[in-house]
Amino acid sequence: MKPHEGRKRRWGDRYDGFRVRNLDPMGLVVPYIMPKKYDSWVLFEASIELTKTEKFIREMRKTEFPTLTLYHIIFAALSRAMVDVPEMNRFVKNCRIYSRNHIKAAMVVMKGMRKDSERTIITPEFECDDALRDFVEKIDKLTGAIDKNVKVREDKNKNSFDVLEVALSSVPSVLLKCFVGLMMFLDNHGLMPKAVNRLSPFHSSFFITNMGSIGLDAVYHHIYEFGTLSLFTSIGKKEVRYEPDGKGTVRRRVYVKMQTVVDERTTDGHIYALGFKAMKRYIMNPELLLSPPENIVFDVIDKKNVKGS
């Protein structure tokens, strides 16, 4: 099931989202005051305990999910948070706010850890009723196809975005600039070719980068002006702390820092707070992800009930 599944497009909607029509006056005006994403960044930081999560991962690797990693948990937790708080899955284009009609993620995957290693990007799409097994299978299908022993140009299994990147990298700079400018214009008016939108990581619900995998702390990563991305999360390296519990016993606990940049025009801080609390709850209690969500919440975007919504 997808967000807004079964809803009919109306005048003013886009093929990748439906226009939010029940905004308060501030929600209507702010995109015109801050027409660019770099005007409207808001930064969130969270320190999340992983002690229980790591135990869960170890146990699941022995049974149902031999490839399970923290990546899978965070992808699932963020996607499930967008099901619980669908306002997080909005974007702004041409000073108008839209509710996305799909859940799509993006992540850079290194083809090795050498200095000359190249990068590729995976863009898995998820359903509102996906459970942890679905997340693991969809992500592993994409990462498993990556050949880390060859360059992107030589990879026979390169994904669609890699094919486009390789093609564009061979185009003269003047033509490349014109192509990107044309795509930005078309995207701004909801006319970008669907094929480009579908394979583009810049048109995702959220983007994740794992700085901890290279031994660094989380960073605040920009959200791209090109595309519809409104949320970028960075994962830092794990930190071990020894803390007293309520009984005075010192316990070993594991934490990870996550730093996120969002586009504040899409919704208000209270909504984002609810969303990040949900994400944190799922990461700390990953057993909640084993089953599909009990209740799927749909983004309310009309002033009143509209036929077909």
Topology:
Layout: E1 17-19, H1 25-33, E2 41-49, H2 51-62, H3 70-84, E3 90-93, E4 96-100, E5 103-110, E6 119-122, E7 125-126, H4 132-143, H5 160-169, H6 173-188, H7 194-199, E8 206-210, E9 231-244, E10 250-263, H8 269-284
Parallel strand pairs: 5-8, 8-9
Antiparallel strand pairs: 1-4, 2-10, 3-4, 5-6, 5-7, 9-10
Helix pairs in contact: 3-4, 3-8
Descriptive notes:
- By secondary structure, the protein is of the alpha+beta class.
- The protein has a single domain, classed as Chloramphenicol Acetyltransferase, CATH 3.30.559.
- 31% of the residues lie in helices and 22% in strands.
- It has helices at 25-33, 51-62, 70-84, 132-143, 160-169, 173-188, 194-199, 269-284, and strands spanning 17-19, 41-49, 90-93, 96-100, 103-110, 119-122, 125-126, 206-210, 231-244, 250-263.
- Strands 2, 5, 6, 7, 8, 9 and 10 form a 7-stranded mixed sheet that branches. Strands 1-4-3 form a 3-stranded antiparallel sheet, covered by helices on one side.
- The protein starts with 16 loop residues before the first strand and ends in a 25-residue tail after the last helix.
- The mean pLDDT is 92.
